[in-house]
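== Item description ==
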Amino acid sequence: MPVSQNGLSSELLEELAALAAEKVRDGEGLRLMGEGGLLPELAQHLMQAALEAEMDEHLAAEAGRAGGRGSRSGGNTRNGYRSKKVMTEVGTVMVQVPRDRLGTFQPRMLPKYAHRTGALDDLVISLTAKGLTSGEIVSHLAQTYGMTTTKETISTITDKALESMAEWRTRPLDAVYPVVFIDAVHVKVRDGNVANRPIYVAIAVTVDGYREILGLWAGDGGEGAKYWQTVLTEIKNRGVRDVLMLVCDGLTALPDAVNTVWLATVVQTCVVHLLRASLRYASRRDWAELARDLKPVYTAVNEDQARQRLTDFDDKWGKR
């Protein structure tokens, strides 16, 4: 079967083109999503075909386990269909879920009590992350996808995501991390009113050389060493016994907060923050060249090389 560059068969593409042309001829116009749209019809056909294939596979597997016996000798066979309305990311579709006589068929694509696809959940979570309320999401799904849903359904989807986030935030961590980077970024958060709030971020390098996000914490007000101590204590309580080096900005009292949690941890100021602090003493027009010449000092392999590079830097910029 010929396959196009996007992975669809040529026959399927021809059928889609014919269906689109038929809708245009009937005066319906070419609507992609929502009620009467092309994509919901395509989704319905694909889901129906997948369910039929799952049932065939299920019956073949049971027949193999039973030695190929037919229904008259106790084997399993098809037993009609049941209708099911499914909300997808392209609109609502109606599928016919096949049934078997023994009631052992459980479709993987549409579990027993599922009435929406995982992709729709991702869409709702994405809209929530962009700041839309439950009511606004319901209106958006109705206008764009012709989908009738409720605020309770939206809340169910987001609550499930919050449960997964809570499990991720409290997961056990490794006993030792060679390097941990901590910093706070200020983002706009809607909590009644939209306001800037610091989000505390901790990223570690594992002993295998991979980066791992240890967690995200939303604080109140500005960034402070006291709150960082709370964050690091939580990380320690999740199983981290030692951190060899912790990289941070030049926040006052932060090294003391780190050493309160891990006594022997080396606290290193982030190179980016060191460069940024140095640029405050120079004219803005020189920042790019200054940063380029100053960075080799901090990336030297040893102290002697760093001192030599600092001497070279002073020869060029000392008089200015």
Observations:
- The two ends are 72 Å apart (CA to CA).
